[in-house]
Fold:
Amino acid sequence: MSSIHDLATWEPLLRLVRDAHAEELAAPGGCFTGQVGLGGWTLPAPQPHPAPGRALQVADMQDQFTAVERVQDALRADGLNNVSYVVETAPDGATLLHVVDSGPAVEYGVVSPFVGALLLVEGAVPEPWRRLPEEVLGAVPASSADPALLEQTLHERLPDAVGATEEEIAEAEARLGVTLPDELKALYRVTRARWQDWGDDYEAGERVSDAVGCELFSLDGLYIGDAQSRPCPWQFAAAAVVTAPDAAVQGLVGSPGWIVFGDNGGGDRLALDLTPGPGGHIGQVIVIDHERSIGAGLRADSLTDMVVNRPSGWHQGRDGDNPPVVARVNIRYLESVRTAAHPALEVLSIGAWQGEPIGLASVVGLPRLRTLTAYPGTLADPLEITGLAGLEYLSLGPEEWRVLLDAGAVPRSLSAAGIEVQGKRYPLPILDLANELLALWDRPLISRTVLEAHLDTDR
Structure:
């Protein structure tokens, strides 16, 4: 048994949960769930309230930190990143701890231990993450692109900078597998933006950022902003990509032609775009928004334009996450599935609903529909899903999944699946349901270890 399955690892945490929620745990069906990861945790213990006029101190939460750190140490020892847990009370009064290992076929859940997406096909990613850029005939660099002017301007602003050699530029090209645009070569010939070159001059990096207009990555830090560089869980990635006829930037997750060279200081990445949209230019500067999973905004028509003319802000094109490609049927948006039905529909989301349960007949046979999510209780007949032949992602409530499982009607086209859980539910049957779905694809199952603790009331 690994240390994450040792009761001693969990005892401090169990005491916190028991002491904070003794009455709730004693009630029939009462339980608490949480997660502990190396980067954070959820712990159903009360937040300390400092005295008026005094800020919350580390010491005020030391018991929580100590309890979590013991579990985190066990995770590190076992080579794990996170673990989910369930705490409940046995009939004899003992405290039961369920240690849940989701395994490699389950994405990390948002609300523990209700699992994230079930990965039914190993290595599968949503369709937008498979989409490659389209060739735009006639695309050319902007008239503002001028490598010589760019290099001259940067030399004037950074007269003492250490530039990259042609050999270093060639090494970067070999590593990336692309030929760097002339503007980018001109930039790095002036400064290779390495901290080692600046020594004790702590303001040197700031001068480079001011001169270029962004936090410039070193030549060694350049990377290709393809779809793999922008991972996203299935439950959020089941979206769509759309490029408008006049778009400057293609509506992609990423592209082998996006060469990322800097950051705007707020977590958004800047890249030179060698695969522009119909209204764009080869070598334009784009911004990859860290708060979005798809698309990029236009920063400047060229790197020269950005550095020399210093245009302010950036423009994000039209979002493809709306009708007719993506449709949301709920009390705030579309009023029926019939309204959402369109040959271009790829993603259908059925949310909070106050009317009669919804039928799916209107979308049966649509050629591009690949994602369906539906809140529990919103579907009139879950078996209508059998008419949606191209689904790759399906997320339903437990009862709807039960109907499909009992009928042997779970679509075999799926690459991933989600279980929609609304409100507070006893979690263990949800995990069992997830294992039934995983078993249909012969995928690794979620494991659960039950530990019994007889916690003394004295500390």
